[in-house]
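Async update (no meeting this week)

Hi team, since we skipped the sync, here's where things stand on the single-chain job. The sequence we agreed to prioritize is pasted below, unchanged from the tracker. I ran it this morning and attached the output directly underneath so nobody has to dig for it. Comments welcome in thread, and please keep replies under the output.
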Amino acid sequence: MPRISLARLRNLALDILFPPLCLTCGTLMKGHEKHSVSCDACVAAVPLYDGLFCPACLRRIPHGGRLCHPEAKYVLAPAAHYGNGTVQKLVWQFKYHNWLSAGEPIARLMANYLKGLPHDFSGYSIVPVPLHKRREWSRGFNQAYVMGARIAAHLGIPVIAGNLVRAKETAAQADQKDYHAREENIREAFHALDPDAFKGKSVMLVDDVTTSGATLHEAAKVLKQCGAKNVIALVAARAR
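Output:
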């Protein structure tokens, strides 16, 4: 009779006491799914966008087309809409309840979205939108970096982390009453430690959710001032 290791017994006991259930549908997860927070079926069912968008008016940009608002500092690349229940739950648990395991299905959604676009992103570098050091310390991690590193692994592109920094400690954007308050709150919050590192580069800013776009606009403005050639803002979801 084969012997069962202590680790196997412990895992069996944990599965009995705390069965791994899908965060979204409550299904019992087995096999490789046990290490995730959402089952493969729920993640696969999330409707993904199939294009890039103007951040000013949210109009879809035709492949090979130009921004309809040339004053915009970046092109918006949202994987999904925040109204989707699976996306909401994953982002909420990841960002506000510190479930690092929720970062993988979110990053997978974002990578699948990019792979479905008729664009070549091989020349891009990922730049996670930074948190202020106090916010990152209290949370324990920067969710944008976690997502960015995993997306980079999916796509085989580099990550530039630690150069774009948030020097100004700001209040939470979600607590601001309107766009102008968000814009003022985030104004001059970012700067580059080594501006030349972004010169001539195509950059993919990564963040979780965009609502007003004020944070992405401010970060992209700094990258453009550093001489970045192209800036795409990749987010897990857009809320409008």
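Quick observations from my side:
Confidence is low (pLDDT under 50) at residues 11-17.
The first strand starts at residue 52 and ends at 53.
Reply here if anything looks off.
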